[in-house]
Every structure is written in structure tokens, then in C-alpha cells.
Write a structure and sequence with these properties.
The protein is α/β, with parallel strands linked by helices and about 300 residues long. The protein has eight helices and nine strands. Helix 4 crosses helix 5 and helix 6 runs parallel beside helix 7.
């Protein structure tokens, strides 16, 4: 009898755990503006046509149009941790950007938290990790969210910026080949995948593959990258991060690498703290408004 009851419940369980259909939701705002910083829930496209990605949008006062900043969050290979992930906000960084006139979108990608769905960024096993596939899957989700916001009347169509953290930064590097008129700059905080392998500090899955993929992402890259890492990052140390950046630059990418002071007990999360954003503020501001090339004088 217990087995029959379980079988009878299976269709109901399938219904309850099914991903929400986009036909049942409308892309765009899904709630009123609130505080702080005109905080508003949005639904944006994802690679799964039947699932909308949950996001938060923040804006300065006024009607715009504003330059757009998209923040790509970190990730994990641990499915339970992904499912329990709260909606990322990066409030100190958002406040920094909004104060400088940016509208800021923070989408939660497939396989994470409230968005749910299949995790398309899976890198595979530690020894044979496919970092190119996972990075491109992240990049595609950043692109979809960015393109959707660029269609809004209050967003400028050009000169958006992308800021990525850890796996989100890795996806941002994979997006460096995009049109530099649409995306003017990319800033990455300790980009990479496979860090803290088996939850061990300073252990990385297949580091040689990560460097090779960084070189692959550098080929054809057209958008300048600001590459930031804290001195006490135990996921991707400053020395390892410099090696990744060298591989990216060695195949044609442009990257300005900055090692910042140690922040807190673990520098990998500096992007989430006021102290970390303060330490990165000068580099961030240079990336937001790069100097224009000097006009050459006619002889």
C-alpha cells in the first residue's frame, strides 16, 4: 500500500518541481520599485525557453536613459548549495555603480536559487573539466540578460559594462569577443572555475586546462578587461591569477591586472563587502570611464 501511495504521488511531485513556464510569466518587472536604490524584481530571458531568470534591477533617480551594468555572480559545482543560493545582490558594488549613473542588473542564472532549471554551466569532473563549455554557457546567459535590458527605454543602447565574480567573471571573459560598442568594458573579480577543489584552499581542478581556456578566450577578444584579485584570495591566488591573465593577454586579449590588499578573512568574497569595493574603487572607476585616446596632431 505504501508503494502504491508513493507511485500515486509521483505525478504531483513532478508538477510541484517542474520549472515555471515563461508562458505563465511576463518578462520584465515583476514587482514595484522599493528601497534601496529603486530595487525592483525582474524576469529576464534564459537559454531555456520555458524558464525566466530571476533578477534584481537598481536605478538612479530620474527617467534615464542610463548606462547599464550587469553583474554576473559566482557559482559552485555543489547542486545543493546552488539550489539554496539566495538572490545575489552585491549591494556595496551596486551602490557604487548607481552613484555613478548606472542602472544595475543582477540576474540569477539557470540552476541557481529561485531561477531553478538545469545547470548548464557544469564543467564536468575535476581532472577533465571543460572550462570552455562552462564559460561560454555563463557568457550566453549574461548576453541574454543584457540584450533584454538594452531594449528598455530607460537604458542606453551602447557602452554597457559587465562585472563578473569568480565563475561569473570566467563567463565575462568568454564574452570579451563581443561588440565593444555595445559593451565598453569588462571587470572581473578573481575569475575562474574549479577553485577550492574538494573544498580545499589553494587547490584548483585541472589548472593547466584553466590556463589553456584563458588563452582561448583571449583570442579574438575586443573588449578591455580589468582583472582584480585580493592578496588573500585562496580560490585563485594573485600568482595564479596573473598566470591566467598572462595566458589571456598572450593570445591577444587586453587585461589590466591589479592585486588589491587583503580583505577580510577570505579575499575571494571582497566584491560583496564595503571594504572590498572601497579597495577596488579606483580601478573600478577607471574601467567605468576609460580615458579617450588622444587625437594625433597633423604634421
Amino acid at each position: 500500500m505504501r508503494l502504491l501511495n508513493t507511485i500515486a504521488l509521483l505525478p504531483l511531485l513532478a508538477l510541484l518541481t517542474a520549472a515555471p513556464l515563461c508562458a505563465q510569466v511576463t518578462l520584465g518587472p515583476s514587482g514595484e520599485e522599493g528601497e534601496p536604490l529603486r530595487r525592483q524584481q525582474w524576469l529576464v530571458p534564459s537559454p531555456a525557453t520555458d524558464i525566466a531568470a530571476h533578477a534584481l534591477l537598481f536605478r538612479p533617480p530620474g527617467a534615464g536613459p542610463f548606462r547599464l551594468a550587469v553583474i554576473a555572480h559566482a557559482s559552485t559545482q555543489n547542486g545543493l548549495r546552488r539550489a539554496q543560493m539566495p538572490q545575489p545582490e552585491y549591494r556595496p558594488l551596486v551602490a557604487h555603480l548607481v552613484a555613478r549613473g548606472f542602472a544595475v542588473l543582477v540576474p540569477e542564472r539557470l540552476g541557481h536559487g529561485a531561477t531553478g532549471g538545469r545547470y548548464v554551466e557544469d564543467q564536468g569532473g575535476c581532472d577533465e573539466a571543460d572550462y570552455a563549455r562552462s564559460g561560454r554557457a555563463t557568457a550566453e546567459q549574461i548576453r541574454l540578460a543584457l540584450d533584454h535590458l538594452r531594449k528598455q527605454d530607460f537604458i542606453r543602447k551602447e557602452a554597457a559594462i559587465v562585472i563578473g565574480h569568480s565563475a561569473g567573471g570566467w563567463g565575462a571573459l568568454a564574452l570579451a569577443h563581443a561588440d565593444p560598442k555595445a559593451i565598453s568594458a569588462i571587470t572581473v573579480f578573481a575569475p575562474g572555475r574549479g577553485g577550492h577543489a574538494n573544498d580545499e584552499p589553494n587547490r584548483i581542478c585541472a589548472p593547466h586546462s584553466l590556463r589553456a581556456t584563458a588563452a582561448e578566450f583571449g583570442r579574438g577578444a575586443r573588449i578591455p578587461v580589468t582583472w582584480l584579485v585580493a592578496g588573500n584570495d585562496s580560490y585563485f591566488s594573485p600568482a595564479f591569477s596573473k598566470g591566467l591573465a598572462d595566458a589571456f593577454r598572450g593570445s591577444g586579449g587586453k587585461a589590466d591586472v591589479r592585486v588589491l590588499p587583503a580583505v577580510g578573512s577570505e579575499g575571494h568574497w571582497m566584491i560583496e563587502s564595503e571594504a572590498g569595493v572601497k579597495a577596488a574603487s579606483d580601478a573600478l572607476d577607471r574601467a567605468l570611464n576609460p580615458p579617450k585616446p588622444m587625437a594625433t596632431k597633423k604634421p
